[in-house]
Amino acid sequence: MTRSYDLVVIGAGSGGVRAARVAANLGASVAIIEDYRVGGTCVIRGCVPKKLYVYASRFADMFEIAGSFGWTVEASFDWATLVANKQREIDRLEKAYTAGLEGSGVEIIRDRGTIAGPNSVRLRDAGETLEAKTILISTGGHPSKPAIPGAELGITSNEAFDLKTLPHSILIEGGGYVAVEFATIFAGLGVKTTLVYRGERILRGFDDDLRTGMEAGMQMRGIQFIYGTTICGLSQAGQDVSVTLSNDVVAPYGAVMFATGRAPNIHGLGLETAGVALTETGAIAVDAYSRTSCPSIYAVGDVTGRIALTPVAIREGQAFAETVFNNTPTAVDHSLVGTAVFGEPEAAAVGLTEHDAACAHKDIDVYLARFRPMINTLSQRSERMVMKLVTLPDGGRVIGCHILGPGAAEIVQMAAIPMAMKADKADFDRAIAMHPTAAEELVTFKAPSCRYRGGIRQ
Ligand SMILES: Cc1cc2nc3c(=O)[nH]c(=O)nc-3n(C[C@H](O)[C@H](O)[C@H](O)COP(=O)(O)OP(=O)(O)OC[C@H]3O[C@@H](n4cnc5c(N)ncnc54)[C@H](O)[C@@H]3O)c2cc1C
Ligand SMILES: NC(=O)c1ccc[n+]([C@@H]2O[C@H](COP(=O)([O-])OP(=O)(O)OC[C@H]3O[C@@H](n4cnc5c(N)ncnc54)[C@H](O)[C@@H]3O)[C@@H](O)[C@H]2O)c1
Fold first, then answer.
1. Which CATH number goes with the domain that contains 107?
2. Is 181 annotated as a binding residue?
3. Does residue 430 fall inside a structural domain?
Protein backbone atom coordinates (compact mmCIF):
# COMPACT_ATOMS: atom_id res chain seq x y z
CA MET A 1 0.00 0.00 0.00
CA THR A 2 1.31 3.46 -0.86
CA ARG A 3 2.38 5.48 2.17
CA SER A 4 0.83 8.93 2.11
CA TYR A 5 1.47 12.08 4.12
CA ASP A 6 0.25 15.63 4.46
CA LEU A 7 3.85 16.75 3.89
CA VAL A 8 6.97 15.12 2.49
CA VAL A 9 10.15 17.16 2.95
CA ILE A 10 13.22 16.41 0.83
CA GLY A 11 16.38 17.44 2.71
CA ALA A 12 16.87 17.55 6.48
CA GLY A 13 18.93 20.73 6.76
CA SER A 14 18.18 24.06 8.42
CA GLY A 15 15.04 24.86 6.40
CA GLY A 16 13.63 21.36 6.06
CA VAL A 17 13.99 20.41 9.71
CA ARG A 18 12.25 23.56 10.92
CA ALA A 19 9.41 23.19 8.41
CA ALA A 20 8.91 19.50 9.23
CA ARG A 21 8.82 20.05 12.99
CA VAL A 22 6.46 23.01 12.88
CA ALA A 23 4.11 21.27 10.43
CA ALA A 24 4.07 18.13 12.58
CA ASN A 25 3.44 20.17 15.72
CA LEU A 26 0.48 21.72 13.91
CA GLY A 27 -0.97 18.25 13.39
CA ALA A 28 0.26 17.32 9.91
CA SER A 29 1.57 13.84 9.09
CA VAL A 30 5.14 14.47 7.97
CA ALA A 31 8.02 12.46 6.49
CA ILE A 32 11.47 13.96 5.92
CA ILE A 33 13.94 12.35 3.53
CA GLU A 34 17.70 12.78 4.02
CA ASP A 35 20.42 11.02 2.04
CA TYR A 36 23.43 12.16 4.07
CA ARG A 37 23.21 13.37 7.65
CA VAL A 38 20.36 15.02 9.58
CA GLY A 39 21.22 18.66 10.27
CA GLY A 40 22.37 19.55 6.76
CA THR A 41 25.18 21.83 5.72
CA CYS A 42 25.10 24.17 8.70
CA VAL A 43 25.45 21.48 11.34
CA ILE A 44 27.54 18.89 9.52
CA ARG A 45 29.91 20.87 7.27
CA GLY A 46 29.07 24.54 7.54
CA CYS A 47 28.42 27.10 10.29
CA VAL A 48 29.01 24.86 13.28
CA PRO A 49 32.29 23.08 12.45
CA LYS A 50 33.49 26.30 10.78
CA LYS A 51 32.97 28.35 13.94
CA LEU A 52 34.66 25.66 16.05
CA TYR A 53 37.68 25.80 13.74
CA VAL A 54 37.67 29.61 13.84
CA TYR A 55 37.82 29.40 17.63
CA ALA A 56 40.77 27.00 17.30
CA SER A 57 42.58 29.37 14.95
CA ARG A 58 42.10 32.38 17.23
CA PHE A 59 44.32 30.95 19.95
CA ALA A 60 47.28 31.96 17.78
CA ASP A 61 46.34 35.63 18.24
CA MET A 62 45.81 35.24 21.95
CA PHE A 63 49.17 33.50 22.42
CA GLU A 64 50.85 36.30 20.49
CA ILE A 65 49.63 39.03 22.83
CA ALA A 66 49.69 36.90 26.00
CA GLY A 67 53.22 38.05 26.83
CA SER A 68 52.05 41.67 27.13
CA PHE A 69 49.74 40.57 29.91
CA GLY A 70 52.52 38.75 31.75
CA TRP A 71 51.92 35.26 30.46
CA THR A 72 54.52 32.88 29.10
CA VAL A 73 52.88 30.33 26.82
CA GLU A 74 54.47 27.35 25.15
CA ALA A 75 51.88 26.23 22.66
CA SER A 76 51.62 23.43 20.14
CA PHE A 77 48.67 22.39 18.03
CA ASP A 78 47.29 18.94 17.17
CA TRP A 79 44.95 18.89 14.17
CA ALA A 80 43.77 15.32 14.82
CA THR A 81 42.46 16.33 18.24
CA LEU A 82 40.49 19.23 16.80
CA VAL A 83 38.97 17.07 14.04
CA ALA A 84 38.01 14.31 16.50
CA ASN A 85 36.44 16.75 18.97
CA LYS A 86 34.59 18.53 16.18
CA GLN A 87 33.29 15.16 15.01
CA ARG A 88 32.00 14.35 18.47
CA GLU A 89 30.14 17.64 18.67
CA ILE A 90 28.62 17.17 15.20
CA ASP A 91 27.49 13.66 16.16
CA ARG A 92 25.87 15.08 19.30
CA LEU A 93 24.05 17.75 17.32
CA GLU A 94 22.89 15.27 14.68
CA LYS A 95 21.39 13.13 17.44
CA ALA A 96 19.69 16.19 18.95
CA TYR A 97 18.19 17.15 15.58
CA THR A 98 17.04 13.57 15.00
CA ALA A 99 15.46 13.40 18.46
CA GLY A 100 13.77 16.77 17.90
CA LEU A 101 12.18 15.55 14.67
CA GLU A 102 11.11 12.24 16.14
CA GLY A 103 9.78 13.96 19.24
CA SER A 104 7.51 16.04 17.01
CA GLY A 105 6.27 12.89 15.29
CA VAL A 106 8.17 13.37 12.03
CA GLU A 107 9.14 10.17 10.23
CA ILE A 108 12.78 10.26 9.12
CA ILE A 109 13.51 8.34 5.93
CA ARG A 110 17.20 7.82 5.12
CA ASP A 111 17.20 7.68 1.34
CA ARG A 112 17.48 9.91 -1.69
CA GLY A 113 14.24 11.58 -2.70
CA THR A 114 13.22 12.67 -6.17
CA ILE A 115 10.03 14.30 -7.35
CA ALA A 116 7.90 11.85 -9.34
CA GLY A 117 4.90 14.16 -9.89
CA PRO A 118 3.04 17.04 -8.21
CA ASN A 119 2.08 14.81 -5.27
CA SER A 120 4.59 11.97 -5.33
CA VAL A 121 8.18 11.46 -4.24
CA ARG A 122 10.31 8.49 -5.28
CA LEU A 123 12.77 6.92 -2.85
CA ARG A 124 15.88 5.87 -4.79
CA ASP A 125 17.15 3.06 -2.57
CA ALA A 126 13.83 1.72 -1.31
CA GLY A 127 12.33 1.89 -4.80
CA GLU A 128 9.11 3.12 -3.20
CA THR A 129 6.88 6.04 -4.13
CA LEU A 130 5.33 8.19 -1.38
CA GLU A 131 2.20 10.25 -1.83
CA ALA A 132 2.08 13.78 -0.38
CA LYS A 133 -0.56 16.50 -0.31
CA THR A 134 2.33 18.98 -0.17
CA ILE A 135 6.01 18.53 -1.01
CA LEU A 136 8.77 20.78 0.35
CA ILE A 137 12.13 20.86 -1.41
CA SER A 138 14.90 21.92 0.98
CA THR A 139 17.88 20.24 -0.62
CA GLY A 140 20.37 23.08 -0.09
CA GLY A 141 23.43 23.55 -2.27
CA HIS A 142 26.90 22.19 -2.92
CA PRO A 143 30.32 23.80 -3.52
CA SER A 144 30.96 24.52 -7.18
CA LYS A 145 34.43 24.23 -8.70
CA PRO A 146 35.52 26.03 -11.85
CA ALA A 147 35.69 23.82 -14.95
CA ILE A 148 39.48 23.70 -15.30
CA PRO A 149 41.94 20.86 -15.95
CA GLY A 150 42.81 19.03 -12.73
CA ALA A 151 39.96 20.58 -10.72
CA GLU A 152 39.52 17.21 -8.98
CA LEU A 153 42.87 17.79 -7.22
CA GLY A 154 41.43 20.78 -5.36
CA ILE A 155 39.35 20.44 -2.21
CA THR A 156 36.26 22.40 -1.17
CA SER A 157 34.85 23.29 2.24
CA ASN A 158 33.31 19.79 2.31
CA GLU A 159 36.71 18.13 2.47
CA ALA A 160 38.59 20.86 4.35
CA PHE A 161 37.04 19.92 7.70
CA ASP A 162 38.39 16.37 7.65
CA LEU A 163 41.83 16.56 6.04
CA LYS A 164 44.05 13.75 7.34
CA THR A 165 46.84 16.22 8.08
CA LEU A 166 47.27 19.97 7.75
CA PRO A 167 49.08 20.93 4.53
CA HIS A 168 52.30 22.99 4.77
CA SER A 169 50.73 25.56 2.47
CA ILE A 170 47.36 26.21 0.86
CA LEU A 171 46.08 28.28 -2.04
CA ILE A 172 42.43 29.26 -1.63
CA GLU A 173 40.50 30.60 -4.61
CA GLY A 174 37.61 33.01 -4.00
CA GLY A 175 36.88 36.26 -2.24
CA GLY A 176 33.64 35.50 -0.39
CA TYR A 177 32.65 34.10 2.99
CA VAL A 178 34.18 30.65 2.66
CA ALA A 179 37.48 31.91 1.24
CA VAL A 180 37.96 34.48 4.01
CA GLU A 181 36.88 32.19 6.83
CA PHE A 182 39.01 29.25 5.74
CA ALA A 183 42.03 31.48 5.05
CA THR A 184 41.63 32.67 8.65
CA ILE A 185 41.39 29.11 9.92
CA PHE A 186 44.35 27.71 8.01
CA ALA A 187 46.59 30.72 8.67
CA GLY A 188 45.74 30.71 12.38
CA LEU A 189 46.64 27.02 12.56
CA GLY A 190 50.05 27.70 11.06
CA VAL A 191 49.51 26.87 7.38
CA LYS A 192 51.18 29.24 4.89
CA THR A 193 48.06 30.65 3.27
CA THR A 194 47.53 32.46 -0.02
CA LEU A 195 44.23 33.72 -1.36
CA VAL A 196 43.77 34.14 -5.10
CA TYR A 197 40.80 36.20 -6.22
CA ARG A 198 39.61 37.31 -9.64
CA GLY A 199 38.37 40.69 -8.38
CA GLU A 200 40.09 43.72 -6.89
CA ARG A 201 39.29 43.19 -3.22
CA ILE A 202 37.72 40.49 -1.05
CA LEU A 203 34.14 40.53 0.30
CA ARG A 204 32.37 42.22 -2.58
CA GLY A 205 29.05 43.65 -1.39
CA PHE A 206 30.31 44.53 2.09
CA ASP A 207 31.06 48.09 3.17
CA ASP A 208 34.43 49.30 1.83
CA ASP A 209 35.80 50.05 5.30
CA LEU A 210 35.15 46.45 6.32
CA ARG A 211 36.70 45.12 3.13
CA THR A 212 39.92 47.08 3.49
CA GLY A 213 40.07 46.40 7.23
CA MET A 214 39.58 42.66 6.72
CA GLU A 215 42.25 42.60 4.04
CA ALA A 216 44.72 44.44 6.29
CA GLY A 217 43.95 42.17 9.24
CA MET A 218 44.45 39.05 7.18
CA GLN A 219 47.70 40.39 5.75
CA MET A 220 48.88 41.14 9.27
CA ARG A 221 48.32 37.47 10.05
CA GLY A 222 50.56 36.45 7.15
CA ILE A 223 47.92 35.71 4.50
CA GLN A 224 49.07 36.64 1.01
CA PHE A 225 46.72 37.99 -1.64
CA ILE A 226 46.89 37.57 -5.40
CA TYR A 227 44.24 39.76 -7.01
CA GLY A 228 42.89 39.94 -10.55
CA THR A 229 43.90 36.33 -11.08
CA THR A 230 42.27 32.90 -11.40
CA ILE A 231 43.48 29.32 -11.27
CA CYS A 232 43.73 27.88 -14.80
CA GLY A 233 44.81 24.35 -14.02
CA LEU A 234 46.07 21.91 -11.41
CA SER A 235 48.38 18.91 -11.68
CA GLN A 236 49.98 16.55 -9.20
CA ALA A 237 53.60 17.34 -8.31
CA GLY A 238 54.76 14.70 -5.84
CA GLN A 239 52.99 15.35 -2.55
CA ASP A 240 52.05 18.87 -3.72
CA VAL A 241 49.60 20.28 -6.23
CA SER A 242 51.13 22.38 -8.99
CA VAL A 243 48.99 25.40 -9.80
CA THR A 244 48.96 27.33 -13.06
CA LEU A 245 47.55 30.83 -12.61
CA SER A 246 46.09 33.15 -15.23
CA ASN A 247 49.12 35.46 -14.73
CA ASP A 248 51.28 32.56 -16.06
CA VAL A 249 52.83 31.86 -12.67
CA VAL A 250 53.22 28.14 -11.90
CA ALA A 251 53.76 27.24 -8.24
CA PRO A 252 53.36 24.22 -5.93
CA TYR A 253 51.09 24.25 -2.88
CA GLY A 254 50.44 21.62 -0.22
CA ALA A 255 46.73 21.92 -0.97
CA VAL A 256 44.39 23.93 -3.17
CA MET A 257 40.89 24.86 -2.04
CA PHE A 258 38.08 26.19 -4.20
CA ALA A 259 35.80 28.63 -2.38
CA THR A 260 34.20 29.73 -5.61
CA GLY A 261 30.58 29.71 -4.57
CA ARG A 262 27.79 27.18 -4.19
CA ALA A 263 25.16 25.84 -6.60
CA PRO A 264 21.60 24.71 -5.74
CA ASN A 265 21.01 20.94 -5.36
CA ILE A 266 18.53 20.44 -8.19
CA HIS A 267 20.36 17.92 -10.35
CA GLY A 268 18.37 14.70 -10.84
CA LEU A 269 15.60 15.94 -8.55
CA GLY A 270 12.86 15.21 -11.11
CA LEU A 271 11.62 18.81 -11.13
CA GLU A 272 10.48 18.43 -14.73
CA THR A 273 7.96 15.72 -13.72
CA ALA A 274 5.97 18.36 -11.85
CA GLY A 275 6.75 21.42 -13.97
CA VAL A 276 8.81 23.15 -11.27
CA ALA A 277 10.42 26.19 -12.89
CA LEU A 278 13.95 27.49 -12.26
CA THR A 279 15.36 31.01 -12.00
CA GLU A 280 17.95 32.32 -14.45
CA THR A 281 20.70 31.21 -12.07
CA GLY A 282 19.41 27.64 -11.82
CA ALA A 283 17.74 27.90 -8.41
CA ILE A 284 14.11 26.88 -7.79
CA ALA A 285 11.84 29.85 -8.50
CA VAL A 286 9.41 30.60 -5.67
CA ASP A 287 6.92 33.31 -4.74
CA ALA A 288 6.86 35.28 -1.47
CA TYR A 289 5.32 32.23 0.27
CA SER A 290 8.00 29.85 -1.07
CA ARG A 291 5.54 28.25 -3.50
CA THR A 292 6.99 26.96 -6.77
CA SER A 293 5.32 27.02 -10.18
CA CYS A 294 3.69 23.69 -9.19
CA PRO A 295 0.99 24.61 -6.61
CA SER A 296 1.54 21.54 -4.38
CA ILE A 297 5.33 21.96 -4.24
CA TYR A 298 7.20 24.53 -2.13
CA ALA A 299 10.92 25.19 -1.69
CA VAL A 300 12.97 26.93 1.02
CA GLY A 301 16.60 27.64 1.83
CA ASP A 302 19.70 27.64 -0.37
CA VAL A 303 18.01 25.72 -3.18
CA THR A 304 15.88 28.80 -3.87
CA GLY A 305 18.91 31.09 -4.38
CA ARG A 306 17.60 33.84 -2.11
CA ILE A 307 19.90 34.56 0.86
CA ALA A 308 22.09 31.55 1.67
CA LEU A 309 22.18 31.80 5.45
CA THR A 310 20.94 29.34 8.05
CA PRO A 311 18.62 31.71 9.94
CA VAL A 312 17.02 32.70 6.63
CA ALA A 313 16.41 29.05 5.67
CA ILE A 314 14.93 28.45 9.13
CA ARG A 315 12.67 31.49 8.87
CA GLU A 316 11.52 30.39 5.39
CA GLY A 317 10.79 26.88 6.71
CA GLN A 318 8.78 28.32 9.60
CA ALA A 319 6.86 30.70 7.31
CA PHE A 320 6.07 27.84 4.91
CA ALA A 321 4.61 25.74 7.74
CA GLU A 322 2.57 28.69 9.06
CA THR A 323 1.26 29.38 5.56
CA VAL A 324 0.30 25.83 4.60
CA PHE A 325 -0.53 24.17 7.92
CA ASN A 326 -1.69 27.03 10.15
CA ASN A 327 -3.82 28.91 7.66
CA THR A 328 -1.64 32.00 8.22
CA PRO A 329 -0.04 33.18 4.98
CA THR A 330 3.42 34.34 6.06
CA ALA A 331 6.04 35.92 3.79
CA VAL A 332 9.63 36.32 4.98
CA ASP A 333 11.02 39.85 4.91
CA HIS A 334 14.45 39.51 3.30
CA SER A 335 15.18 43.24 3.42
CA LEU A 336 17.15 43.57 6.67
CA VAL A 337 19.18 40.43 7.19
CA GLY A 338 22.30 40.67 9.34
CA THR A 339 25.36 38.69 8.34
CA ALA A 340 28.84 37.98 9.69
CA VAL A 341 32.11 36.79 8.24
CA PHE A 342 33.95 34.88 10.91
CA GLY A 343 37.38 35.84 9.72
CA GLU A 344 40.12 37.29 11.84
CA PRO A 345 39.28 40.10 12.34
CA GLU A 346 35.56 39.38 12.41
CA ALA A 347 33.20 41.40 10.20
CA ALA A 348 29.47 41.85 10.58
CA ALA A 349 26.83 44.04 9.01
CA VAL A 350 23.15 44.75 8.82
CA GLY A 351 21.43 47.15 6.46
CA LEU A 352 22.88 49.28 3.70
CA THR A 353 26.57 49.95 3.06
CA GLU A 354 27.67 53.57 2.87
CA HIS A 355 27.86 53.32 -0.91
CA ASP A 356 24.46 51.66 -1.37
CA ALA A 357 22.79 54.04 1.09
CA ALA A 358 24.20 57.06 -0.76
CA CYS A 359 22.93 55.66 -4.07
CA ALA A 360 19.49 54.74 -2.69
CA HIS A 361 18.78 57.69 -0.38
CA LYS A 362 21.07 60.46 -1.76
CA ASP A 363 21.07 62.29 1.61
CA ILE A 364 22.73 60.30 4.41
CA ASP A 365 25.04 60.79 7.39
CA VAL A 366 27.92 58.46 8.18
CA TYR A 367 29.34 57.99 11.67
CA LEU A 368 32.69 56.23 11.64
CA ALA A 369 35.09 55.28 14.44
CA ARG A 370 38.45 53.53 14.09
CA PHE A 371 40.29 52.68 17.27
CA ARG A 372 42.56 50.10 18.84
CA PRO A 373 40.39 47.67 20.79
CA MET A 374 41.41 47.68 24.43
CA ILE A 375 42.85 44.17 24.29
CA ASN A 376 45.46 45.45 21.82
CA THR A 377 46.59 48.40 23.92
CA LEU A 378 49.06 46.53 26.10
CA SER A 379 50.55 44.74 23.11
CA GLN A 380 52.40 45.98 20.04
CA ARG A 381 49.38 45.16 17.93
CA SER A 382 48.20 48.21 16.01
CA GLU A 383 45.11 46.65 14.47
CA ARG A 384 42.06 48.92 14.62
CA MET A 385 38.45 48.15 15.14
CA VAL A 386 35.97 49.74 12.70
CA MET A 387 32.47 50.86 13.67
CA LYS A 388 30.14 52.56 11.27
CA LEU A 389 26.55 53.72 11.43
CA VAL A 390 24.79 54.96 8.31
CA THR A 391 21.71 57.07 8.99
CA LEU A 392 19.18 59.18 7.18
CA PRO A 393 20.18 62.85 7.51
CA ASP A 394 20.28 64.90 10.69
CA GLY A 395 19.80 62.15 13.25
CA GLY A 396 17.36 60.16 11.12
CA ARG A 397 16.72 56.44 10.89
CA VAL A 398 19.70 54.10 11.25
CA ILE A 399 19.87 52.21 7.96
CA GLY A 400 23.28 50.54 8.17
CA CYS A 401 25.57 49.18 10.86
CA HIS A 402 29.01 47.79 9.96
CA ILE A 403 31.56 46.49 12.42
CA LEU A 404 35.01 44.94 12.11
CA GLY A 405 36.84 43.58 15.11
CA PRO A 406 36.38 41.47 18.22
CA GLY A 407 32.75 40.51 18.86
CA ALA A 408 31.49 42.18 15.67
CA ALA A 409 28.80 39.58 15.05
CA GLU A 410 27.51 39.68 18.62
CA ILE A 411 27.26 43.49 18.53
CA VAL A 412 25.58 43.67 15.13
CA GLN A 413 23.03 41.04 16.16
CA MET A 414 21.88 43.43 18.90
CA ALA A 415 22.00 46.53 16.70
CA ALA A 416 19.72 44.68 14.26
CA ILE A 417 16.88 44.81 16.79
CA PRO A 418 16.45 48.60 17.02
CA MET A 419 17.09 48.82 13.28
CA ALA A 420 14.23 46.39 12.64
CA MET A 421 12.11 48.69 14.85
CA LYS A 422 13.14 51.57 12.57
CA ALA A 423 15.08 53.30 15.33
CA ASP A 424 16.70 56.63 14.53
CA LYS A 425 20.01 57.99 15.75
CA ALA A 426 18.35 59.64 18.77
CA ASP A 427 17.01 56.25 19.87
CA PHE A 428 20.54 54.85 19.84
CA ASP A 429 21.81 57.93 21.71
CA ARG A 430 19.20 57.51 24.46
CA ALA A 431 20.95 54.31 25.57
CA ILE A 432 23.62 55.06 28.17
CA ALA A 433 26.98 53.61 27.22
CA MET A 434 28.44 50.57 28.94
CA HIS A 435 32.08 51.15 29.69
CA PRO A 436 34.64 49.96 28.84
CA THR A 437 33.26 48.24 25.76
CA ALA A 438 33.78 48.64 22.04
CA ALA A 439 30.04 48.72 21.37
CA GLU A 440 29.65 51.92 23.39
CA GLU A 441 30.83 53.76 20.28
CA LEU A 442 27.43 53.03 18.74
CA VAL A 443 25.66 55.17 21.34
CA THR A 444 28.28 57.90 21.76
CA PHE A 445 28.80 59.12 18.19
CA LYS A 446 28.47 62.90 18.15
CA ALA A 447 28.82 64.63 14.76
CA PRO A 448 28.82 62.63 11.52
CA SER A 449 32.25 61.80 10.06
CA CYS A 450 30.86 62.66 6.66
CA ARG A 451 27.61 63.56 4.97
CA TYR A 452 26.20 62.84 1.52
CA ARG A 453 23.78 65.30 0.01
CA GLY A 454 22.24 64.56 -3.37
CA GLY A 455 24.39 61.39 -3.45
CA ILE A 456 27.60 63.46 -3.30
CA ARG A 457 30.03 63.13 -0.40
CA GLN A 458 30.39 66.54 1.24
C1 LIG B 1 31.48 26.27 5.04
C2 LIG B 1 30.16 26.95 5.28
C3 LIG B 1 30.00 27.77 6.37
C4 LIG B 1 28.78 28.39 6.60
N5 LIG B 1 28.68 29.23 7.67
C6 LIG B 1 27.51 29.86 7.91
C7 LIG B 1 27.37 30.71 9.04
O8 LIG B 1 28.32 30.90 9.80
N9 LIG B 1 26.17 31.31 9.24
C10 LIG B 1 25.10 31.11 8.40
O11 LIG B 1 24.04 31.67 8.65
N12 LIG B 1 25.22 30.31 7.32
C13 LIG B 1 26.39 29.68 7.06
N14 LIG B 1 26.49 28.85 5.97
C15 LIG B 1 25.32 28.68 5.08
C16 LIG B 1 24.33 27.66 5.67
O17 LIG B 1 25.00 26.46 5.98
C18 LIG B 1 23.22 27.38 4.66
O19 LIG B 1 22.64 28.60 4.27
C20 LIG B 1 22.12 26.50 5.26
O21 LIG B 1 22.64 25.27 5.72
C22 LIG B 1 21.03 26.24 4.21
O23 LIG B 1 20.04 25.39 4.73
P24 LIG B 1 19.12 24.55 3.75
O25 LIG B 1 18.06 23.94 4.60
O26 LIG B 1 18.73 25.35 2.60
O27 LIG B 1 20.06 23.41 3.15
P28 LIG B 1 21.15 22.39 3.82
O29 LIG B 1 21.38 22.76 5.23
O30 LIG B 1 22.23 22.38 2.87
O31 LIG B 1 20.32 21.03 3.83
C32 LIG B 1 20.01 20.33 2.67
C33 LIG B 1 19.94 18.85 2.99
O34 LIG B 1 19.32 18.17 1.93
C35 LIG B 1 19.97 16.93 1.74
N36 LIG B 1 19.63 16.50 0.37
C37 LIG B 1 19.97 17.11 -0.80
N38 LIG B 1 19.39 16.49 -1.83
C39 LIG B 1 18.69 15.46 -1.31
C40 LIG B 1 17.85 14.46 -1.88
N41 LIG B 1 17.62 14.40 -3.20
N42 LIG B 1 17.29 13.53 -1.06
C43 LIG B 1 17.49 13.58 0.28
N44 LIG B 1 18.25 14.52 0.87
C45 LIG B 1 18.83 15.45 0.08
C46 LIG B 1 21.42 17.25 1.98
O47 LIG B 1 22.17 16.08 2.29
C48 LIG B 1 21.31 18.21 3.16
O49 LIG B 1 21.37 17.53 4.38
C50 LIG B 1 27.69 28.19 5.72
C51 LIG B 1 27.85 27.35 4.61
C52 LIG B 1 29.06 26.73 4.39
C53 LIG B 1 29.22 25.84 3.21
N1 LIG C 1 29.49 33.31 7.84
C2 LIG C 1 28.48 32.98 7.05
O3 LIG C 1 27.33 33.33 7.28
C4 LIG C 1 28.73 32.12 5.85
C5 LIG C 1 29.90 31.38 5.73
C6 LIG C 1 30.09 30.60 4.60
C7 LIG C 1 29.12 30.57 3.61
N8 LIG C 1 28.00 31.30 3.76
C9 LIG C 1 26.96 31.32 2.73
O10 LIG C 1 27.28 30.43 1.70
C11 LIG C 1 27.35 31.13 0.46
C12 LIG C 1 28.48 30.56 -0.36
O13 LIG C 1 29.73 30.99 0.16
P14 LIG C 1 30.98 31.09 -0.79
O15 LIG C 1 32.08 31.79 -0.13
O16 LIG C 1 31.22 29.72 -1.37
O17 LIG C 1 30.39 31.94 -1.98
P18 LIG C 1 30.46 33.51 -2.25
O19 LIG C 1 29.47 33.73 -3.31
O20 LIG C 1 30.39 34.28 -1.00
O21 LIG C 1 31.92 33.71 -2.84
C22 LIG C 1 32.33 33.03 -4.00
C23 LIG C 1 33.59 33.70 -4.50
O24 LIG C 1 34.14 32.94 -5.57
C25 LIG C 1 34.37 33.80 -6.68
N26 LIG C 1 34.14 32.97 -7.88
C27 LIG C 1 32.96 32.46 -8.30
N28 LIG C 1 33.14 31.74 -9.42
C29 LIG C 1 34.45 31.80 -9.73
C30 LIG C 1 35.25 31.25 -10.75
N31 LIG C 1 34.73 30.49 -11.72
N32 LIG C 1 36.57 31.50 -10.74
C33 LIG C 1 37.10 32.27 -9.77
N34 LIG C 1 36.41 32.81 -8.76
C35 LIG C 1 35.09 32.57 -8.74
C36 LIG C 1 33.41 34.94 -6.52
O37 LIG C 1 33.90 36.09 -7.17
C38 LIG C 1 33.37 35.10 -5.02
O39 LIG C 1 34.40 35.91 -4.54
C40 LIG C 1 27.56 32.58 0.83
O41 LIG C 1 27.01 33.43 -0.14
C42 LIG C 1 26.86 32.71 2.14
O43 LIG C 1 25.54 33.10 1.92
C44 LIG C 1 27.79 32.08 4.86
1. 3.50.50.60
2. yes
3. yes
Residue 330 lies in a domain: no
The reply to whether ligand 1 has any atom less than 6 angstroms from the CB of 264 is no
Q: Which ligand is nearest to the CA of 137?
A: 1
State the distance from the centre of ligand 1 to the C-alpha of 308, rounded, in angstroms.
8
Distance 139 CA to ligand 1 centre (A): 8
Q: In terms of domains, do 254 and 274 share one?
A: no
255 and 270 co-located in one domain: no
| Distance between Cα 143 and ligand 1 center (Å) | 10
Based on the domain organization, do 155 and 223 belong to the same domain?
Answer: yes
Pocket of ligand 2 (CB under 6 A): 146, 173-179, 181, 198-199, 230, 259-262, 308-309, 339-342
pLDDT digits (tens, 9 = 90+) for 20-47: 999 999 999 999 999 999 999 999 999 9
Q: For residue 81, what are the domain limits?
A: 4-141+263-325
**Average model confidence (pLDDT) for the chain?**
97
Assembly ipTM = 0.98
pLDDT at 103: 98
Q: How far apart are CA 69 and CA 83, in angstroms?
A: 30
In the chain, % of residues over pLDDT 70? 100
Q: What is the pLDDT of residues 392-435, one digit of tens each?
A: 999 999 999 999 999 999 999 999 999 999 999 999 999 999 99
Ligand 2 atom, smallest distance to 230 CA: 33
- The set of residues, in sequence order, having a beta carbon less than 8 Å from that of 212 and lying 6+ positions away, is 201
Q: Are residues 253 and 267 in the same domain?
A: no
Mark whether 128 and 177 lie in a shared domain.
Answer: no
* Residue in 48, 256, 260, 303 to alter for ligand 2 test, most ligand atoms within 8 A of Cβ: 260
Whether residue 19 is contained in a domain is answered as yes
Amino acid at position 109, single letter: I
Atom number of ligand 2 nearest to Cα 342: 1
Q: Say if 337 falls within a structural domain.
A: no
* Residue 1: pLDDT band with limits 50, 70, 90: confident
For ligand 1, whether the C-beta of 311 sits within 6 Å is yes
What pLDDT does residue 380 have?
85
Distance between alpha carbon 301 and the CA centroid of its chain, in Å?
A: 12
d(C-alpha 452, C-alpha 458), whole Å = 6
- Residues 6+ away with beta carbon under 8 Å from 166: 79, 186, 189, 190, 191
Question: Quick one: 155 and 136 in the same domain?
Answer: no
Q: Atom 8 in ligand 1: which residue has the minimum CA distance?
A: 47
Question: What pLDDT sits at residue 249?
Answer: 98
Pair 178, 286 in one domain: no
**Protein residue whose Cα sits closest to atom 16 of ligand 2:** 261
CA–CA gap between residue 38 and residue 44 (Å, rounded): 8
- Report how far residue 369's alpha carbon sits from residue 373's, in angstroms, rounded to the nearest whole number: 11
- Tally the domains of the chain: 3
Positions annotated as catalytic residues are 435
14 and 135, same domain (yes or no)? yes
pTM of this structure: 0.97
Segment 209-227 shows an average pLDDT of 98
**Does 177 carry a binding-site annotation?**
yes
Q: How far apart are CA 61 and CA 208, in angstroms?
A: 24
